[in-house]
Amino acid sequence: MTDSTSNASTSSSAPRAFSSSEMPSEPMVIATDTIDTESQTSKRRKLSDASIRTKLLFLATASVAVALLMAFSGMAINDIQFIRSSKVEQLDSQAKMLAFNCAGVLTFQDETGAKELLRSMAMYPAVEYACVYDEKGKVFAEYQAEGVAAKQYRQVDVNQYVLDDSGVAVRQSIMDAGERIGSVYLFANMSDLHAHVKRYLSLCAVLMIGSLASAGMFAYLMQRSISTPIKELADATNTVKQKRDFTIRVQPASLDELGQLGGAFNAMLDEIQASKAALQAANDELENRVELRTAELTDEINQRQSIQEALETARDEAEAANRAKSEFLANMSHEIRTPLNGILGFTELLTSNSDGNDEATRQEYLQTISSSGSHLLELINDILDLSKIEAGQLDVELSPCSPHDVINQVVSVLRAKAQKKGLKLQCAWSSRVPESIVTDGGRLRQLLMNLVGNAIKFTKEGCVTIDAELDHFSEMLTVRVVDTGIGIPLEKQADIFSPFVQADNSVTRRYGGTGLGLAISERLSSALGGDLRVESVAGQGSVFTLKVKTGSLKSVALLDAPPADALIGTVEEYSADEIDLPAARILLVEDGEINRKLVRIMLEEAGATVVTAENGWAAVNATSKASYDLILMDMQMPVMDGYTAAKKMREEGLTTPIVALTAHAMKGDEEKCLDAGCTAYLTKPIQQVVLLREVLKHLTMGAETQESADAGQSLSASNPVESLVDRAAEESDAEVLTTDVGLKSTLPLENPVYREIVEEFVDFLQQHVADMQSAYADQQYDTLAQLAHALKGAGGTAGFDVLTEPAAKLQQSTKELTPEEVEVNLAELSDLTRRIRQTPQRA
């Protein structure tokens, strides 16, 4: 057969074109039986990769196998069902015959005859077990086949049968004169059925193998007329694919569908060969365009990545700055609120004549207002200074001033603060003292106040030393502030001069302050022509070195250095006033005996009737038996805590106001109490004025209607002065009188009732601290944490607020398992315990 040709047409889907030098000059016809290539489609499934011959053989044999399998299966199922039903009928007939024969022996109770009848079942190998039951259902006689182990056979109702894979069980009634006098039970296994199935399967296997062999031989002879032309076409296709030679043609051997396929294959090759040149040109042009566009996209992607990285960096910086400023604002809010509360609170005391017209008390209130105002002014000045520094508008006024006078002023202001903590504040000159230097005296004083104040704040024991030195040649004044405080880790020292960033936020929380002092000081030192540096070792103390320009010293007199100076002062104390309460029944729930007694006395002296409970469980029982106008609930108690008790009371329908009393004052504690069902929240140590105000508010609200209560809440919210006074009394930390003799309770000890409470607390404190030391020695940290928590609230309640902070630190360090901090806090509590005294200082 000669090759057929057709007009070439352009095809966009043709493969890469070849140049004219790659193509033979004339079409070439090859014998397809000489092409020997292997299949390149290894990624397909095994059956799909098989040859047509294999697929045809598999199709023929698989079809025959499926047909035979279905036929044999159908016959097997039908045969097995027939045998099973026949087996049931046969065993049922045997049971009926046996029942008929056993009627007489059962009537005469002939057990030997019954066993003989049952033994006749031995002629049936499949019967494993047979028995005769009397009319009461008891076994009268039984038979067990030899070689079969005894087992529990399935029970069958009378005149019924059960058939399963293990065998067949039947039971027939034994009748005599129309009455049932017993029954016969037979059980036969399926061994005969299984033997029949094995024989049947063996026969089927032989027939199936022979049928498959015959079918495979016939399919092998018939498939050649189909597989040979297809193989020739596949070989030609693989040759074209491998050699890229589109002159190859096939020779169809018939006019059937395979012959038509061969002709179409030749025509397709003709079209592909004609379109190669056009396709090659299009490919070349497309490659040029792709290269150009790829270069453009690469430049654009690089630009976008740079912009994205810059945006992410700016976002991270903004988020970090926002977080830092949020923390700063929260800290600053607390710092401002504390002196403001003191000012408003003591102002209200003066306006309400709480001083009892006592001039000494009035002066004490005024001094407290003055000191709080000064503290508030310092905070505001810090904020303003930082704002000016951030805006680049900080101005300094250079004028002659005495550096010795500036240092003395700082020592005079801070000596009381140092004495209160039991610290020595020392000042010395390492060189001669210039009579004056040219600098901003106010800014220099502010610098030293920040540095010395920080040193006192972060020093628990030891001393704070101010060492001044003049370098006459470089015209530089150097002031070193040396302390024996907590120190600063090396990796944190770079952060302490950054605004809004603290070296350790926990230090700020423990010691107070805004954290702006050092940031402002560092910038002020630069404005004064010098710098500020720090050298510190954690746990050993710090040395802050301040240098400022002195201006020209040519005509300045140098004086001899004065001796070191250090003074100790005292701090006055104050007490809360009283409020009269309406007649009311109040339930006080508190596990601490001293706290319970003190709060009860406070309330009873104000006119209330108080019932006490030691834990939440007792409180729930008390509210179920009697009604109360108000409930004061400690939240940390054994047996059942306050949170659980409040929830249970609310679930039982109790609407009485519940005021939470807790030593926890962290963020989220108030929400936790309110979520548990409490109406209000007070922190320990308990301040009498705060407690009585809160009780009075809720007792008054409880006597009104719900609409009046809502109106009262709106009025309270609209009165910021009263709100601030209440918050001041709640958040203020009462100062404790520290003298050479010891520590005095802030309660009015001239009152015998309060004196008794304090005496009981002192006895309790001695044993309590001893228990804490024993718990620490035995490494019972959970017990130590519980003891510290109890002391944290009890100490302030008894008027010894000085115990609250060390007890809280001890509890925290115990939870964090930091032995060094635990030992320090225990030692501090032991020292405070030794210093506590009960004798009042003034009437």
TrEMBL record:
Give start and end of each Histidine kinase domain.
Answer: 331-552
Against Pfam families, the record matches this protein to:
CHASE8, HAMP, HATPase_c, HisKA, Hpt, Response_reg
Stretches assigned to the HPt domain: 750-843
Gene3D superfamilies this protein is in?
Answer: 1.10.287.130, 3.40.50.2300, 6.10.340.10, Histidine kinase-like ATPase, C-terminal domain (3.30.565.10), HPT domain (1.20.120.160)
User: What CDD domains does its record include?
Assistant: HAMP (cd06225), HATPase_EvgS-ArcB-TorS-like (cd16922), HisKA (cd00082), HPT (cd00088), REC_hyHK_CKI1_RcsC-like (cd17546)
Annotated region Disordered: where? 1-25
Q: Could you tell me where this protein is found in the cell?
A: Cell membrane
UniProt catalytic activity? ATP + protein L-histidine = ADP + protein N-phospho-L-histidine
Entry coiled-coil feature ranges: 265-331
Q: Which SUPFAM superfamilies match?
A: ATPase domain of HSP90 chaperone/DNA topoisomerase II/histidine kinase, CheY-like, HAMP domain-like, Histidine-containing phosphotransfer domain, HPT domain, Homodimeric domain of signal transducing histidine kinase
Official protein name in the record: histidine kinase
Q: To which species is this protein native?
A: Neorhodopirellula lusitana
